[in-house]
Amino acid sequence: MPLPAGREAAAIQAALREDRLGVAAPVADAYAAAVTAHARLLIALNEQINALEGQVKAHFLAHPDAEIYLSMPGIGAITGARVLAEFGDDPTRYACAKARKNYAGTSPITRASGKVHSVQARFVRNNRLADALQRQAFCALQNSPGARRYYDRQRARDMDYNPALRQLGNRLVGILHGCLKTRTTYSEATAWAHHANPAAA
């Protein structure tokens, strides 16, 4: 027979206020063994992640394009390795910056039919590359004044967060293409010279 509501609540509160909710010793031992096993798995996994990260960094830093990638705002060794791996290192693969942007999926698609005109994001794209470039764009906001101004300008046009970040990523892909083509490292002044004027797009 159930307890009245007031007495049932009091019984629950009393149980919760006890030092602990006791379980049978075999059950407690089983939980302890499971937690210990999970902790050891996590420790081993973290060790393997650290070892893999070290190898990725070593191989990336040995690549002739690494200096250019690392000069870009928002790119560290791991993000740089991801972007380089997805773009590839064939200097003839992308005929122009637009081709690289299209492959990256950062350039928008413009659709027009009659009086209807819309600009949409590309959803058919390399998701691994898109994720790395999104991460780069986000990090670039913290250490590139030019990237920050460019992003803020997109937001001032009533563009939402993700489209503005994607637009910044698109701009950064174009800058990267130019640096790789001319074999020069990133320059904050050169990269954003056109956008230094608030009236410029």
Automatic annotation (TrEMBL):
Domain of life (superkingdom): Bacteria
Residues covered by the Transposase IS116/IS110/IS902 C-terminal domain: 68-151
Protein name (record): Transposase
Organism: Nocardiopsis mangrovi
